[in-house]
Design goal:
Length: about 400
């Protein structure tokens, strides 16, 4: 096809779109007084204004690109007009996106880690350094997924010896994987490459990707995990994803899932759900997000320290993550993805991301009823686990 006929096809497409849009609008207006409200779609055929904030504007573009009607008109990304060009569709090796320096008014005033995030936020694919391609050969009932860092060997070991034990737990199969990026020399990390390699050979539960493992790259870690999941573990029934400083009562989780199972809830997503939250605007806070990047409130989301979801939800999240612009705070991002899927995370009182009352901290029976507690040291994890599995402890 010649360039000009391509153009014509595109222009015709846009015209058809405007017409459809007008019909839609008319329909909505004419039914204004009827009890069943028809939602007026956002005006996706319009060029988004450049004064918007970065995330919101990028999301508008993605919504446009992924609009099913639009897709049939513009079949390939190369036919997209310039202002719609979305780097998520390109599969180049990752280069910093220097345009953000112009696109974000106060770029130079932002904290360094936020600038780093912005420069590389288009890069959502990195090579794996260590994989366990056959770990889910026999699809596990529950896949335990632990976000950890290279130097945290002691935490991983405590988890392996306690709540992350693989094999049959409460008559269900459990598999554990640890998610790691790289500890970069530019962040002054000592070189533990050989040690990690040894650990991976020894335990065969390490997944490592070649990117800089930092707080603002946790969403990236999540996206990489979901991609891995859909390739290497798509048949596990449930996923529990948590930090390496939480205590998980694995038998209790399995009991909970066993109770749910007869009711068949494919869209399970539960945890310590936070509602009515929004971005922090204080630059000194860890969770600071500038107004030039995002405005709006957060959808309900489950604290990233520990969440439980079904395998089906994991696959849906993987797909929808291509349609939601990356956000530096991983649990908020997952909330955004759920919202896009039309799902709502469910709060469960057994997920205690803000710990339990001090007076109960040494009460063994409390831990029997909980699902996850944050935060605990490796020594505490070992200690609490003995309470969980102790056959002679009777709680009522
Ligand atoms: C254990 O699980 C298997 C299959 O998952 C089931 O057939 C069996 O009845 C279970 N046993 C007990 C004691 O629950
Ligand atoms: C870290 O050590 C490994 C193995 O000794 C070596 O291959 C690698 O180049 C080192 N990395 C850096 C960044 O120095
Ligand atoms: C995320 O990882 C990439 C790839 O290693 C790196 O270039 C970027 O600086 C990291 N972002 C943050 C916020 O650390």
């Amino acid at each position: 096809m010649t360039l000009s006929s391509k153009r014509i096809r595109m222009i015709l497409g846009f015209m058809a779109f405007n017409v459809i849009g007008c019909i839609f609008l008319r329909l909505s207006l004419s039914t204004h007084n009827s009890p069943q409200k028809i939602q007026i779609p956002t005006r996706f055929w319009q060029k988004p204004s450049l004064s918007g904030t970065f995330w919101n504007q990028q999301q508008q573009r993605l919504d446009f690109i992924h609009n099913p009607n639009f897709n049939t008109i513009l079949a390939s990304p190369s036919e997209l007009p310039d202002w719609l060009h979305d780097s998520k569709l390109k599969s180049d090796v990752c280069k910093p996106n220097l345009r953000v320096q112009r696109q974000i008014a106060d770029y130079n005033l932002l904290p360094k880690h936020f600038q780093d995030f912005l420069l590389y936020s288009d890069c959502t694919s990195y090579p794996m350094l260590i994989n366990q391609p056959t770990i889910c050969e026999d699809a596990p009932f529950l896949l335990l997924v632990v976000k950890t860092l290279v130097p945290h060997f002691e935490r991983r070991q405590a988890i392996r010896e306690t709540w992350g034990q693989v094999g049959v737990v409460a008559n269900r199969t459990v598999t554990t994987v640890f998610l790691l990026g790289s500890a970069m020399p530019e962040d002054n990390h000592p070189n533990l490459t050989d040690l990690l390699k040894y650990e991976a050979e020894m335990h065969r539960d390490i997944l490592q990707w070649d990117y800089r493992d930092t707080f603002f790259n946790l969403t990236l870690k999540d996206i990489l995990f979901l991609d891995w999941y859909s390739s290497f573990c798509p048949n596990s029934q449930f996923v529990l994803k948590g930090d390496d400083d939480v205590f998980v009562n694995t038998p209790q989780i399995i009991e909970f899932l066993d109770r749910l199972l007869p009711h068949k809830i494919p869209d399970l997503f539960t945890g310590d759900v936070i509602t009515n939250a929004g971005p922090h605007r204080d630059k000194k806070l860890k969770y600071f997000v500038p107004e030039s990047y995002f405005v709006g409130s957060y959808p309900p989301y489950a604290g990233g320290g520990g969440v439980l979801y079904s395998g089906q939800v994991a696959l849906k999240l993987q797909e929808v993550s291509k349609k939601v612009v990356i956000y530096p705070i991983d649990d908020v991002y997952t909330g955004m993805c759920l919202k896009k899927l039309g799902l709502v995370p469910e709060k469960h009182s057994g997920f205690r991301m803000f710990d339990i009352e001090a007076k109960y901290k040494d009460n063994p029976c409390i831990y029997r009823t909980l699902m996850i507690v944050h935060s605990r040291t490796p020594q505490q994890i070992k200690h609490i686990w003995r309470w969980i599995v102790h056959p002679e402890l009777h709680c009522q």
